[in-house]
Amino acid sequence: MTEDAGDEAEVELNDRTCIVSRRTCEPADLIRFVRGPDGAVVPDLRRRLPGRGAHVSLDRTLVDEAVRRKLFARAFRAQVTGPADLGDQVDGLLAKSALGALGLARKAGQLVTGATKVDTAIRSGRALMVIHARDAAPDGIRKLDAARRAVAATGGTEISSLRLLDADELGLAFGQGNVIHAAILAGGAGSAAATCLRALATYRGEGSGSVSGAPAGSAGHVTDTGNDMGAPLQRRSGQDEGRGLDPAQEAEA
């Protein structure tokens, strides 16, 4: 059997196999794609579209590789149009899903904004996840990170934090401007929002899990340049860091 034939057989045998890595994964760790009527590759994040599906792990680099190596045509056994910006399309859909879920969590009363309310939610044990805007000032992040570490040090549940979205994006989702810090609270809508954000973080290669209480600067620790859900973000320029609000402004955001 040729290598290509073996690849096709593996895809056919298990529809939970990533067509790039050849690893079998849980559905939540895969992105499903279908072939549209016009032959275009269409992301199916909700896994509801009809037709034969092809799966790629929740990883931007693997989606780009699937397009580059024309692996969708092999998986669908048909000519397809794999747009060069498919990776960007998936990122946009995941971000839209996350923002929509945050909006629902807000309506359900399972989300608070503003540094003071977020600090209270952390210390009371109500916070599931902390969200910082990408353009948040480092000082505000450090103060809330200290609260997370304090909770973990006293035997409380470790609380993860993410820095994936800009203040404008968060403000749009929450129906208000200048959202710099937010906390997702326990509840069905809150859990769904946290799941969507973790998926976006994983897709962007920013890891998963939390390590509250890790030494400053260690892998997974929240710093002014990254998330605590994996590898830190690439260091931002001084110009970008200058966009952060001062502590007085952040207290109201």
Q: Could you give a short account of the major beta sheet?
A: 4 strands, mixed
Regions with little confidence, pLDDT below 50 for 5+ residues: 1-14, 208-226, 229-253
CATH architecture descriptor text of the largest domain: 2-Layer Sandwich
Order of helices and strands: HEEEHHHEHEHEHEHHH
Tally the structural domains: 2
Helix content: 40-55%
Widest β-sheet, arrangement of strands: 4-7-5-6
Q: Give the strand tally.
A: 7
CA distance, first residue to last residue: 61 Å
Structural class by SSE content? alpha+beta
Strand content: 5-15%
CATH structural class of the largest domain: Alpha Beta
Q: Average pLDDT across residues?
A: 80
- CATH superfamily grouping of the largest domain: Ribosomal protein L30/S12
Gross geometry: elongated
Region (Disordered): 208-253
Domain YlxR: 16-86
InterPro entries: Ribosomal_eL30-like_sf (IPR029064), Ribosomal_eL8/eL30/eS12/Gad45 (IPR004038), YlxR (IPR037465), YlxR-like_sf (IPR035931), YlxR_dom (IPR007393)
Protein name: YlxR domain-containing protein
